[in-house]
Amino acid sequence: EVQLVESGGGLVQPGGTLRLSCAASGFTSSDYYMDWVRQAPGKGLEWVGRSRNKANNYITKFAASVKGRFTISRDDSKNSLYLQMNNLKTEDTAVYYCSRERAASAFDYWGQGTLVTVSS
Amino acid sequence: SYVLTQPPSVSVAPGKTARITCGGNNIATQNVHWYQHRPGQAPVVVIYYDYDRPSGIPERFSGSKSGDTATLTISRVVAGDEADYYCQVWDSSDDHWVFGGGTKLTVL
């Protein structure tokens, strides 16, 4: 059974850093494109960034709102994906979801999300 | 950048048909995916590549598109269909994913 489990969310002050993890099971994550999507309170879904698969050198791409502040990395030995978030802003407050992408197709599996709150 | 426009809300009585639209410039040339998102749960893809339905999604869910509008149609609506629905496309000009603003489906 395919599962994605996010962790690492919490309360952080503006300007702070946080690293989210996404543990995959039931499939080999290195074979797939993986994405992060967030939902701010009372708002809709917003795509955050993507990591291509190993065959495509894990090339990353980010939304303009987070470019230069967020990075995505992987650990194949742990079948995991990470979102490093630096210089956090109050507008980054959201539930962050990890998802599996079928290479420019739909996101076929999602995690339950982890809440990030940026506040002083 | 590419913009997708959805109505904020759609209401429908049980047993009737709900139609949720997604507007975008010449969206008929894009691959459109649709997601159902219930509060506190993970989003679920209900339609991918415009018309295809993943296994486990009822046949009551269907997709279509023409010109500048894609449509998610839910036939014989039941209370369990109440959720937020989002359309999604890949913006090749900016090399990123775009979601519509979402539509809250209320079953009366």
Structure summarized in a few sentences:
Chain A has 120 residues and is mostly beta strands. Chain A is 0% helix and 52% strand. In chain B, strands 1, 3, 4, 7, 8 and 9 form a 6-stranded mixed beta sheet that branches. A 3-stranded antiparallel beta sheet of chain B has the order 2-6-5, with no helix packed on it.
Task: Describe the protein's architecture and organization.
Chain A has 120 residues and is an all-beta fold. Helix content of chain A is 0%, strand content 52%. In chain A, strands 2, 4, 5, 6, 9, 10 and 11 form a seven-stranded mixed β-sheet that branches. A four-stranded antiparallel β-sheet of chain A has the order 1-3-8-7, with no helix packed on it. In chain A, strand 9 (94-101) and strand 10 form a beta hairpin. Chain A is globular, with a radius of gyration of 13 Å. With 108 residues, chain B is mainly β. Helix content of chain B is 0%, strand content 45%. Chain B has strands spanning 9-12, 18-23, 33-37, 44-47, 61-66, 69-74, 83-91, 96-99, 103-107. In chain B, the strands form two sheets. In chain B, strands 1, 3, 4, 7, 8 and 9 form a six-stranded mixed β-sheet that branches. At the A-B interface, strand 5 and strand 10 of A face strand 3, strand 7 and strand 8 of B.
